[in-house]
Amino acid sequence: MYLKITLLAALVSLAGFTNAQPYNNDIDVIVGVSVPGIYHAGIGLHYIPSARLGLSFGSDFKNDENGTLYELALIHSIYFGKPDRKIRKKLWAVNTGISFLVEQSIHEKSTAAYFDFYFIRKIPITSKIFIQPELGASYFLFEHLVDEAEIVTKGIRTKIIPKIGLSLVFKI
């Protein structure tokens, strides 16, 4: 089942590459907050006008008895709808991706992966700065949990969790 979802995500991501036309690539720098990724920063490359490939890194930046959470996400966005009259860009997108989360405390280390599916809407502040709310869901793929005695267990997780967030996007 996990393999099917991962292959489907890869096919959706690669579908944009097969129709790629020569394009003057735009780069987005993204900073924001989301669940499950907490605080994140990333970069996205518009390889065609209606698609973006991105990479982000996130953390909760806590270092207490519960440990610290880190996230690495690979994201593919497909933009749709009519272009905005002022900035001549499509503002709605459907995003798919894979998120890898590592949570480590002094007692245990957990590595988990999620398949992400969510919608974004860029809200222009200027022609190069946008607010980007996101709403969707993340599907749990796997978890590898190791405690301090090096015992590996598989925890029970909710299969689908909400994905919500808010980011600030700078076009460069």
List keywords for this structure.
172 residues, mainly beta, Porin, eight-stranded antiparallel β-barrel
Sheet with the most strands: spatial strand order: 1-2-3-4-5-6-8-10
Task: Tell me the quaternary state.
Answer: single chain
User: What's the domain count?
Assistant: 1
Q: Using the coordinates above, name the CATH class.
A: Mainly Beta
Terminal Cα span: 39 Å
Shape by Cα distribution? elongated
The major pleated sheet works out as: 8 strands, antiparallel, barrel
Sequence stretches where pLDDT stays below 50 over 5 or more residues: none
Radius of gyration (Å): 17 Å
Number of E-state strands = 10
Report the helical percentage: under 10%
Strand content: over 45%
How would you state the average pLDDT, rounded? 83
Order of helices and strands: HEEEEEEEEEE
Structural class: mainly beta
Number of helices: 1
Q: According to CATH, what is the topology? A: Porin
Architecture (CATH level 2) name: Beta Barrel
Topology:
Elements: H1 2-18, E1 26-35, E2 38-48, E3 51-59, E4 68-80, E5 92-104, E6 108-121, E7 123-124, E8 129-147, E9 152-153, E10 160-171
Antiparallel strand pairs: 1-2, 1-10, 2-3, 3-4, 4-5, 5-6, 6-8, 7-8, 8-9, 8-10
